[in-house]
Amino acid sequence: MSVAPTAERAAPLSRTPGGPRRFQLNLRQSGIYIAFAAIVLLFTILTGGDMLAPQNISNIIVQNSYILILAIGMILVIIAGHIDLSVGSIVAASGAVAAVLMVNHDVPWPLAVLLTLVVGGLIGAWQGYWVAYFGIPAFIVTLAGMLLFRAVTYTILGNRGIGPFPEEVRTLSNGFTSGFLGNVGLGALGGADLFSLLLGLAAVAGIVVTQWRSRAGRARYGQVVEPLPLFITKIALAAVVVMFVVVQLARFRNVPWVLVLLAALVIGYSVLTNRAVFGRQIYAVGGNLQAATLSGVKVKSVVFWIFVNMGVLAALAGIIFAGRLNQANPTGGDQFELDAIAAAFIGGAAVQGGVGKVVGAITGGLIMGVINNGMSLIGAPSEQVMLVKGAVLLAAVAFDVWTKRRAGASR
Asked: Which fold does the domain 6-10+42-175+256-410 belong to in CATH?
Protein backbone atom coordinates (compact mmCIF):
# COMPACT_ATOMS: atom_id res chain seq x y z
CA MET A 1 0.00 0.00 0.00
CA SER A 2 1.33 3.45 -0.86
CA VAL A 3 0.24 6.90 0.13
CA ALA A 4 -0.87 9.09 -2.76
CA PRO A 5 -0.05 12.81 -2.62
CA THR A 6 -3.54 14.25 -2.61
CA ALA A 7 -2.22 17.79 -3.02
CA GLU A 8 -0.96 16.85 -6.46
CA ARG A 9 -3.51 14.27 -7.56
CA ALA A 10 -6.97 15.46 -6.67
CA ALA A 11 -8.59 18.40 -8.33
CA PRO A 12 -9.31 21.36 -6.05
CA LEU A 13 -12.76 21.16 -4.54
CA SER A 14 -15.16 23.66 -3.03
CA ARG A 15 -18.53 23.08 -1.41
CA THR A 16 -21.19 25.70 -0.99
CA PRO A 17 -23.44 25.35 2.07
CA GLY A 18 -26.00 22.72 1.19
CA GLY A 19 -24.89 22.75 -2.41
CA PRO A 20 -22.80 20.61 -4.76
CA ARG A 21 -19.06 20.60 -5.10
CA ARG A 22 -17.75 23.03 -7.66
CA PHE A 23 -14.40 23.48 -9.42
CA GLN A 24 -11.95 26.15 -8.26
CA LEU A 25 -8.79 27.24 -10.04
CA ASN A 26 -5.69 26.05 -8.20
CA LEU A 27 -3.46 29.10 -8.00
CA ARG A 28 -0.55 27.03 -6.77
CA GLN A 29 -0.51 24.92 -9.94
CA SER A 30 -1.60 27.57 -12.45
CA GLY A 31 0.22 30.61 -11.08
CA ILE A 32 3.61 29.53 -12.42
CA TYR A 33 2.35 29.37 -16.01
CA ILE A 34 0.62 32.73 -15.72
CA ALA A 35 3.82 34.24 -14.31
CA PHE A 36 5.88 32.68 -17.11
CA ALA A 37 3.58 34.15 -19.76
CA ALA A 38 3.74 37.57 -18.07
CA ILE A 39 7.56 37.53 -17.92
CA VAL A 40 7.85 36.53 -21.59
CA LEU A 41 5.37 39.26 -22.57
CA LEU A 42 7.25 41.86 -20.52
CA PHE A 43 10.62 41.09 -22.11
CA THR A 44 9.05 40.85 -25.56
CA ILE A 45 7.86 44.43 -25.14
CA LEU A 46 11.13 45.64 -23.62
CA THR A 47 13.21 44.06 -26.40
CA GLY A 48 10.97 45.18 -29.24
CA GLY A 49 10.07 41.59 -30.14
CA ASP A 50 13.63 40.23 -30.13
CA MET A 51 12.77 37.88 -27.25
CA LEU A 52 10.55 35.79 -29.55
CA ALA A 53 12.84 35.87 -32.59
CA PRO A 54 13.60 32.37 -33.99
CA GLN A 55 17.31 32.48 -33.16
CA ASN A 56 16.73 33.80 -29.66
CA ILE A 57 14.21 31.08 -28.79
CA SER A 58 16.71 28.50 -29.98
CA ASN A 59 19.45 30.14 -27.90
CA ILE A 60 17.30 30.06 -24.74
CA ILE A 61 16.71 26.33 -25.11
CA VAL A 62 20.30 25.39 -25.94
CA GLN A 63 21.89 27.67 -23.35
CA ASN A 64 19.69 26.42 -20.51
CA SER A 65 19.45 22.75 -21.45
CA TYR A 66 21.83 21.51 -18.74
CA ILE A 67 20.02 23.52 -16.04
CA LEU A 68 16.70 22.01 -17.17
CA ILE A 69 18.18 18.51 -16.97
CA LEU A 70 19.39 19.24 -13.43
CA ALA A 71 15.98 20.68 -12.52
CA ILE A 72 14.29 17.37 -13.40
CA GLY A 73 16.46 15.50 -10.90
CA MET A 74 16.32 18.27 -8.32
CA ILE A 75 12.51 18.37 -8.24
CA LEU A 76 12.44 14.69 -7.26
CA VAL A 77 14.98 15.28 -4.49
CA ILE A 78 12.99 18.25 -3.16
CA ILE A 79 9.65 16.42 -3.40
CA ALA A 80 11.17 13.74 -1.16
CA GLY A 81 12.06 16.45 1.37
CA HIS A 82 15.80 16.71 0.68
CA ILE A 83 18.23 19.00 -1.17
CA ASP A 84 21.35 18.49 -3.28
CA LEU A 85 24.03 21.19 -3.21
CA SER A 86 26.63 19.13 -5.06
CA VAL A 87 25.17 18.97 -8.58
CA GLY A 88 27.34 21.77 -9.94
CA SER A 89 30.48 19.99 -8.82
CA ILE A 90 29.21 16.68 -10.20
CA VAL A 91 28.62 18.42 -13.55
CA ALA A 92 32.25 19.56 -13.56
CA ALA A 93 33.64 16.19 -12.44
CA SER A 94 31.55 14.30 -15.00
CA GLY A 95 32.66 16.59 -17.79
CA ALA A 96 36.26 15.99 -16.73
CA VAL A 97 35.77 12.21 -16.74
CA ALA A 98 34.16 12.33 -20.18
CA ALA A 99 36.99 14.48 -21.54
CA VAL A 100 39.70 12.18 -20.20
CA LEU A 101 37.98 9.14 -21.69
CA MET A 102 37.17 10.63 -25.10
CA VAL A 103 40.11 12.97 -25.67
CA ASN A 104 43.04 11.54 -23.72
CA HIS A 105 42.29 7.83 -24.08
CA ASP A 106 40.33 7.76 -27.35
CA VAL A 107 37.47 5.74 -25.86
CA PRO A 108 34.57 5.57 -28.38
CA TRP A 109 32.10 8.27 -27.48
CA PRO A 110 29.06 6.01 -26.83
CA LEU A 111 31.07 3.93 -24.36
CA ALA A 112 32.58 7.06 -22.80
CA VAL A 113 29.12 8.58 -22.32
CA LEU A 114 27.86 5.36 -20.73
CA LEU A 115 30.87 5.16 -18.39
CA THR A 116 30.41 8.81 -17.40
CA LEU A 117 26.76 8.19 -16.56
CA VAL A 118 27.82 5.20 -14.45
CA VAL A 119 30.32 7.42 -12.61
CA GLY A 120 27.52 9.91 -11.97
CA GLY A 121 25.33 7.11 -10.63
CA LEU A 122 28.12 5.95 -8.31
CA ILE A 123 28.56 9.47 -6.99
CA GLY A 124 24.83 9.65 -6.36
CA ALA A 125 24.94 6.24 -4.64
CA TRP A 126 27.77 7.46 -2.40
CA GLN A 127 25.74 10.46 -1.27
CA GLY A 128 22.48 8.53 -1.13
CA TYR A 129 24.03 5.97 1.23
CA TRP A 130 25.05 8.60 3.78
CA VAL A 131 21.64 10.28 3.62
CA ALA A 132 19.38 7.23 3.49
CA TYR A 133 21.19 4.58 5.49
CA PHE A 134 23.54 6.54 7.75
CA GLY A 135 21.06 9.29 8.56
CA ILE A 136 23.20 12.35 7.83
CA PRO A 137 21.07 15.29 6.59
CA ALA A 138 21.26 15.74 2.83
CA PHE A 139 22.27 19.38 3.26
CA ILE A 140 25.48 18.33 5.03
CA VAL A 141 26.25 15.36 2.78
CA THR A 142 25.83 17.30 -0.45
CA LEU A 143 27.64 20.35 0.93
CA ALA A 144 30.58 18.04 1.55
CA GLY A 145 30.07 16.58 -1.91
CA MET A 146 30.18 20.05 -3.44
CA LEU A 147 33.70 20.45 -2.05
CA LEU A 148 34.82 16.86 -2.63
CA PHE A 149 33.86 16.59 -6.28
CA ARG A 150 35.15 20.06 -7.12
CA ALA A 151 38.46 18.87 -5.69
CA VAL A 152 38.20 15.74 -7.84
CA THR A 153 37.67 17.95 -10.89
CA TYR A 154 40.79 20.00 -10.13
CA THR A 155 42.73 16.78 -9.53
CA ILE A 156 41.71 15.41 -12.95
CA LEU A 157 42.09 18.60 -14.95
CA GLY A 158 44.56 20.65 -12.95
CA ASN A 159 44.28 24.24 -14.11
CA ARG A 160 43.65 23.47 -17.77
CA GLY A 161 40.76 22.47 -19.97
CA ILE A 162 40.62 19.29 -22.03
CA GLY A 163 39.11 19.21 -25.53
CA PRO A 164 37.94 19.17 -28.24
CA PHE A 165 35.13 16.65 -27.94
CA PRO A 166 34.00 14.31 -30.74
CA GLU A 167 31.62 15.76 -33.31
CA GLU A 168 28.73 13.57 -32.12
CA VAL A 169 28.90 14.98 -28.59
CA ARG A 170 29.07 18.54 -29.89
CA THR A 171 26.08 17.83 -32.12
CA LEU A 172 24.04 16.58 -29.16
CA SER A 173 24.86 19.76 -27.25
CA ASN A 174 24.70 22.34 -30.04
CA GLY A 175 23.38 20.59 -33.14
CA PHE A 176 20.01 20.60 -34.87
CA THR A 177 17.87 18.00 -36.57
CA SER A 178 18.32 17.76 -40.32
CA GLY A 179 15.65 18.92 -42.77
CA PHE A 180 14.63 15.38 -43.73
CA LEU A 181 11.48 16.40 -45.63
CA GLY A 182 12.50 19.81 -46.95
CA ASN A 183 10.97 23.23 -46.32
CA VAL A 184 7.39 24.38 -46.69
CA GLY A 185 6.12 27.89 -47.20
CA LEU A 186 4.48 29.73 -44.32
CA GLY A 187 3.46 32.88 -46.11
CA ALA A 188 4.77 36.01 -44.41
CA LEU A 189 6.82 33.85 -42.03
CA GLY A 190 8.90 32.44 -44.86
CA GLY A 191 9.95 28.79 -45.01
CA ALA A 192 10.15 26.19 -42.26
CA ASP A 193 11.33 22.60 -41.98
CA LEU A 194 8.42 20.20 -42.53
CA PHE A 195 9.89 17.48 -40.30
CA SER A 196 10.12 19.90 -37.38
CA LEU A 197 6.53 20.99 -37.93
CA LEU A 198 5.38 17.36 -37.90
CA LEU A 199 7.23 16.84 -34.61
CA GLY A 200 5.33 19.81 -33.21
CA LEU A 201 1.99 18.40 -34.38
CA ALA A 202 2.87 15.05 -32.80
CA ALA A 203 3.67 16.83 -29.53
CA VAL A 204 0.32 18.63 -29.62
CA ALA A 205 -1.49 15.36 -30.31
CA GLY A 206 0.30 13.78 -27.35
CA ILE A 207 -0.76 16.65 -25.07
CA VAL A 208 -4.38 16.37 -26.17
CA VAL A 209 -4.54 12.60 -25.69
CA THR A 210 -2.79 12.52 -22.29
CA GLN A 211 -4.76 15.45 -20.87
CA TRP A 212 -8.09 14.05 -22.12
CA ARG A 213 -7.33 10.62 -20.63
CA SER A 214 -6.27 12.22 -17.35
CA ARG A 215 -9.47 14.26 -17.19
CA ALA A 216 -11.61 11.23 -18.06
CA GLY A 217 -9.87 9.18 -15.38
CA ARG A 218 -10.52 11.79 -12.69
CA ALA A 219 -14.17 12.03 -13.72
CA ARG A 220 -14.51 8.25 -13.67
CA TYR A 221 -13.35 8.14 -10.05
CA GLY A 222 -15.74 10.87 -9.01
CA GLN A 223 -13.21 13.67 -8.71
CA VAL A 224 -14.17 17.19 -9.71
CA VAL A 225 -12.72 18.25 -13.07
CA GLU A 226 -12.55 21.64 -14.72
CA PRO A 227 -15.49 22.62 -16.96
CA LEU A 228 -15.13 21.44 -20.55
CA PRO A 229 -14.81 24.98 -22.03
CA LEU A 230 -11.95 25.74 -19.62
CA PHE A 231 -10.30 22.41 -20.40
CA ILE A 232 -10.51 23.05 -24.15
CA THR A 233 -9.15 26.57 -23.68
CA LYS A 234 -6.14 25.26 -21.71
CA ILE A 235 -5.39 22.63 -24.36
CA ALA A 236 -5.76 25.19 -27.17
CA LEU A 237 -3.36 27.60 -25.43
CA ALA A 238 -0.82 24.84 -24.87
CA ALA A 239 -1.10 23.80 -28.53
CA VAL A 240 -0.61 27.39 -29.72
CA VAL A 241 2.48 27.84 -27.53
CA VAL A 242 4.03 24.53 -28.66
CA MET A 243 3.41 25.20 -32.35
CA PHE A 244 4.65 28.78 -32.09
CA VAL A 245 7.94 27.63 -30.57
CA VAL A 246 8.31 24.79 -33.09
CA VAL A 247 7.58 27.08 -36.04
CA GLN A 248 10.15 29.60 -34.82
CA LEU A 249 12.73 26.82 -34.36
CA ALA A 250 11.90 25.39 -37.80
CA ARG A 251 12.42 28.83 -39.33
CA PHE A 252 15.88 29.11 -37.77
CA ARG A 253 17.89 25.88 -37.87
CA ASN A 254 15.25 23.27 -36.98
CA VAL A 255 14.74 21.56 -33.62
CA PRO A 256 17.87 21.32 -31.42
CA TRP A 257 18.86 17.75 -30.59
CA VAL A 258 19.10 18.70 -26.94
CA LEU A 259 15.40 19.67 -27.05
CA VAL A 260 14.58 16.18 -28.31
CA LEU A 261 16.55 14.79 -25.35
CA LEU A 262 14.77 17.11 -22.94
CA ALA A 263 11.36 16.16 -24.33
CA ALA A 264 12.16 12.48 -23.81
CA LEU A 265 13.28 13.15 -20.22
CA VAL A 266 10.20 15.23 -19.42
CA ILE A 267 7.85 12.59 -20.79
CA GLY A 268 9.67 9.77 -19.02
CA TYR A 269 9.87 11.46 -15.64
CA SER A 270 6.30 12.76 -15.87
CA VAL A 271 5.12 9.19 -16.38
CA LEU A 272 7.32 8.09 -13.48
CA THR A 273 5.91 10.66 -11.07
CA ASN A 274 2.27 10.41 -12.20
CA ARG A 275 1.85 6.72 -13.02
CA ALA A 276 4.57 4.61 -11.42
CA VAL A 277 4.52 3.25 -7.88
CA PHE A 278 8.01 4.62 -7.25
CA GLY A 279 6.79 8.12 -8.18
CA ARG A 280 3.90 7.92 -5.72
CA GLN A 281 6.32 6.74 -3.07
CA ILE A 282 8.53 9.80 -3.61
CA TYR A 283 5.52 12.05 -2.93
CA ALA A 284 4.55 9.95 0.08
CA VAL A 285 8.03 10.17 1.63
CA GLY A 286 8.13 13.94 1.26
CA GLY A 287 4.49 14.50 2.19
CA ASN A 288 4.32 12.44 5.38
CA LEU A 289 7.34 10.34 6.28
CA GLN A 290 5.68 8.56 9.19
CA ALA A 291 2.59 7.65 7.19
CA ALA A 292 4.74 6.43 4.31
CA THR A 293 6.72 4.19 6.68
CA LEU A 294 3.57 2.76 8.24
CA SER A 295 2.17 2.14 4.75
CA GLY A 296 5.07 -0.12 3.88
CA VAL A 297 7.08 2.27 1.73
CA LYS A 298 10.79 1.41 1.82
CA VAL A 299 11.81 4.95 2.66
CA LYS A 300 15.55 4.37 2.76
CA SER A 301 15.53 2.70 -0.65
CA VAL A 302 13.45 5.51 -2.18
CA VAL A 303 15.80 8.20 -0.84
CA PHE A 304 18.86 6.25 -1.96
CA TRP A 305 17.60 5.90 -5.54
CA ILE A 306 16.56 9.52 -5.96
CA PHE A 307 20.17 10.51 -5.21
CA VAL A 308 21.45 7.90 -7.66
CA ASN A 309 19.09 9.38 -10.25
CA MET A 310 20.31 12.89 -9.43
CA GLY A 311 23.91 11.78 -9.97
CA VAL A 312 23.10 10.26 -13.37
CA LEU A 313 21.25 13.38 -14.54
CA ALA A 314 24.07 15.61 -13.27
CA ALA A 315 26.54 13.50 -15.27
CA LEU A 316 24.34 13.87 -18.36
CA ALA A 317 24.21 17.63 -17.81
CA GLY A 318 28.01 17.61 -17.44
CA ILE A 319 28.41 15.91 -20.82
CA ILE A 320 26.01 18.38 -22.46
CA PHE A 321 27.73 21.39 -20.88
CA ALA A 322 31.24 20.24 -21.75
CA GLY A 323 30.14 19.38 -25.29
CA ARG A 324 28.65 22.82 -25.72
CA LEU A 325 31.90 24.50 -24.63
CA ASN A 326 33.87 21.84 -26.55
CA GLN A 327 36.09 21.31 -23.53
CA ALA A 328 35.96 20.24 -19.89
CA ASN A 329 36.82 23.16 -17.63
CA PRO A 330 37.82 23.09 -13.93
CA THR A 331 35.30 25.85 -13.15
CA GLY A 332 32.48 24.25 -15.12
CA GLY A 333 29.15 23.91 -13.36
CA ASP A 334 29.87 26.75 -10.95
CA GLN A 335 26.63 27.70 -9.12
CA PHE A 336 24.54 25.38 -11.27
CA GLU A 337 23.09 23.95 -8.08
CA LEU A 338 21.59 27.34 -7.24
CA ASP A 339 19.88 27.60 -10.62
CA ALA A 340 18.54 24.05 -10.40
CA ILE A 341 17.18 24.58 -6.88
CA ALA A 342 15.67 27.91 -7.90
CA ALA A 343 14.02 26.29 -10.93
CA ALA A 344 12.39 23.66 -8.71
CA PHE A 345 11.05 26.15 -6.17
CA ILE A 346 9.92 28.68 -8.76
CA GLY A 347 8.22 25.80 -10.55
CA GLY A 348 6.01 25.04 -7.56
CA ALA A 349 7.99 22.73 -5.28
CA ALA A 350 7.23 23.11 -1.57
CA VAL A 351 9.97 23.78 0.95
CA GLN A 352 8.61 21.03 3.21
CA GLY A 353 8.51 18.47 0.38
CA GLY A 354 5.66 16.38 -0.97
CA VAL A 355 4.66 18.85 -3.70
CA GLY A 356 6.03 19.54 -7.18
CA LYS A 357 5.84 18.55 -10.82
CA VAL A 358 8.44 17.87 -13.48
CA VAL A 359 6.74 20.26 -15.92
CA GLY A 360 6.70 22.91 -13.21
CA ALA A 361 10.45 22.54 -12.66
CA ILE A 362 11.04 22.89 -16.42
CA THR A 363 8.86 26.01 -16.43
CA GLY A 364 10.80 27.41 -13.48
CA GLY A 365 14.07 26.75 -15.29
CA LEU A 366 12.76 28.49 -18.39
CA ILE A 367 11.72 31.48 -16.30
CA MET A 368 15.29 31.79 -15.05
CA GLY A 369 16.56 31.38 -18.61
CA VAL A 370 14.19 34.02 -19.99
CA ILE A 371 15.21 36.45 -17.26
CA ASN A 372 18.91 35.89 -18.03
CA ASN A 373 18.33 36.22 -21.76
CA GLY A 374 15.96 39.18 -21.55
CA MET A 375 18.18 41.16 -19.20
CA SER A 376 21.10 40.49 -21.52
CA LEU A 377 19.14 41.71 -24.55
CA ILE A 378 18.29 45.00 -22.85
CA GLY A 379 21.91 45.43 -21.71
CA ALA A 380 21.30 45.13 -17.96
CA PRO A 381 24.42 44.67 -15.80
CA SER A 382 25.01 41.39 -14.01
CA GLU A 383 24.11 42.77 -10.58
CA GLN A 384 20.64 43.67 -11.85
CA VAL A 385 20.21 40.16 -13.26
CA MET A 386 21.07 38.64 -9.87
CA LEU A 387 18.72 41.09 -8.16
CA VAL A 388 15.79 40.14 -10.38
CA LYS A 389 16.45 36.39 -10.11
CA GLY A 390 16.68 36.62 -6.33
CA ALA A 391 13.45 38.60 -6.15
CA VAL A 392 11.64 36.08 -8.37
CA LEU A 393 12.83 33.17 -6.21
CA LEU A 394 11.73 34.91 -3.02
CA ALA A 395 8.37 35.77 -4.56
CA ALA A 396 7.83 32.15 -5.64
CA VAL A 397 8.50 30.76 -2.16
CA ALA A 398 6.40 33.51 -0.55
CA PHE A 399 3.55 32.63 -2.92
CA ASP A 400 3.84 28.98 -1.92
CA VAL A 401 3.62 29.87 1.79
CA TRP A 402 0.69 32.22 1.14
CA THR A 403 -1.32 29.63 -0.77
CA LYS A 404 -0.78 27.11 2.03
CA ARG A 405 -2.01 29.54 4.66
CA ARG A 406 -4.97 30.50 2.46
CA ALA A 407 -5.87 26.86 1.95
CA GLY A 408 -5.58 26.17 5.68
CA ALA A 409 -7.76 29.16 6.57
CA SER A 410 -10.49 28.09 4.13
CA ARG A 411 -10.88 24.64 5.72
From this structure: ABC transporter involved in vitamin B12 uptake, BtuC (1.10.3470)
